[in-house]
Amino acid sequence: AVAVKRRKRRFANRPSVKVRSPEALREQARQAMEGGRFRDAISNYKALLKDDDNPDTRQRLAAAYRGRARELAGKGMLKEALAIGEIRRELCPEVPMDPEHLTLLLRVGRGAEAARAYRQAEKVLDPQVLAGLRRSLAAIYLSGDSGLEEGLDRDDPVLVQGAAARAALQAYCRGEDTAAVQFLAEIPFRSPYRDWVQILKA
User: Fold this and answer.
1) pLDDT > 70 in the chain, percent
2) Do 84 and 68 meet the contact criterion of CB atoms below 8 Å apart?
3) Which residues of 33-49 are buried (b: 16+ CB within 10 A; e: fewer)?
């Protein structure tokens, strides 16, 4: 009888599990996003997806993952940020790639992966965002052995105009100013190397 009473008391002391309604989950997720608590938002949106897998919730989950990845990157935790970005792409493949993910790949020296990600996103990203990514790729390509050749199309501006940009840089380093100017003249105005050309001409 004593053992039965103890068991009853033990079960009675257990906290009841509160089942949150979809409306409550959505509201908590929204508040978490507004407060920059991305881990909480991710947890809530994932719970919502278990009961109702719909495009709107996936979009919001992707936004929460993006916020978390950028938060980690801001703290210098680049590998962790990349891991979150990969999870985002796996769970929300229909959502366009976050440009910051490609930038992170470049920062950690994963040029070939960055190039492949860029090609996949090339047709869906905003033209201005795409132009910014090309400038980032161009800067890495100029540095030398970047691995970009493995992932970029042969007719991509980063490679096509990169040959002249590299030649100009090498000529400039050798003190051959006339040759450098000639190579720079081969680079069009709207090139991803445009900013670099202006710096070299200054």
Assistant:
1) 90
2) yes
3) beeebbebbbbbbeebe
Residue with tokens 């996936």: 58
Number of Cβ within a 10 Å radius of residue 128: 8
d(CA 153, CA 167): 20
Q: What's the pLDDT at 16?
A: 43
Q: Identify whether the C-beta of residue 95 lies closer than 8 Å to the C-beta of residue 121.
A: no
Per-residue confidence (pLDDT) for residue 145, from 0 to 100: 64
User: What predicted TM-score, i.e. pTM, was given to this entire model?
Assistant: 0.74
Residue 157's pLDDT is 92
CA–CA dist 38, 66 (Å, integer): 9
| Residue 77, CA distances (Å) to 65, 84, 108, 114, 131 in order | 15, 11, 11, 18, 26
Q: Return the percentage of the chain with pLDDT > 90, whole number.
A: 51
Give residue 76's identity as a one-letter amino acid code: G
HEC per residue, the chain: CHHHHHHHHHHHHCCCCCCCCHHHHHHHHHHHHHCCCHHHHHHHHHHHHHHCCCHHHHHHHHHHHHHHHHHHHHCCCHHHHHHHHHHHHHHCCCCCCCHHHHHHHHHCCCHHHHHHHHHHHCCCCCHHHHHHHHHHHHHHHHCCCCCHHHCCCCCCHHHHHHHHHHHHHHHHHCCCHHHHHHHHCCCCCCCCCHHHHHHHHC
